[in-house]
Design goal:
Blueprint (H helix, E strand, L loop, with lengths): L41 H16 L4 H11 L11 H8 L2 E2 L5 E2 L8
The protein binds iron/sulfur cluster.
Length: 110
């Protein structure tokens, strides 16, 4: 019996990267609350986002959720208590007092 000429050394599947989602406060809720709807008016959007952010405030995996959205460049929806606009703002490099460039990655809401 011959040996395989090569082997793929693939990493084992890991749920640890996504396990935080099983603890999400929003898991049983309608996803429409966290994502913009087509034709949604400005006022309705503000109210929807405010409600979603309130849910995120007490979510036990808020940090993981926001870090995921920031690291993947999630373009839509409320993640970790942030809107798309909030995340664009958080990803902007900032100059510290020491003159170093930093990026804010801690959970914040606006
Ligand atoms: S932080 Fe908000 S969007 Fe993220 S998992 Fe929790 S409730 Fe859902």
């Amino acid at each position: 019996m011959s040996q395989p000429r090569f082997s793929l050394d693939m990493p084992a599947p890991s749920t640890s990267l996504w396990d935080w989602q099983t603890h999400a406060q929003c898991r049983p809720l309608d996803t429409d609350l966290f994502f913009p709807r087509e034709g949604e008016g400005h006022g309705a959007r503000i109210r929807r986002e405010r409600t979603a952010k309130e849910i995120c405030q007490s979510c036990p995996v808020r940090n993981q959720c926001q870090n995921h959205a920031l690291s993947t460049g999630e373009p839509f929806g409320i993640w970790g208590g942030t809107t798309e606009k909030d995340r664009r703002h958080l990803r902007q490099p900032r100059i510290t007092r020491c003159g170093e460039i930093s990026r804010v990655s801690s959970p914040q809401t606006h």
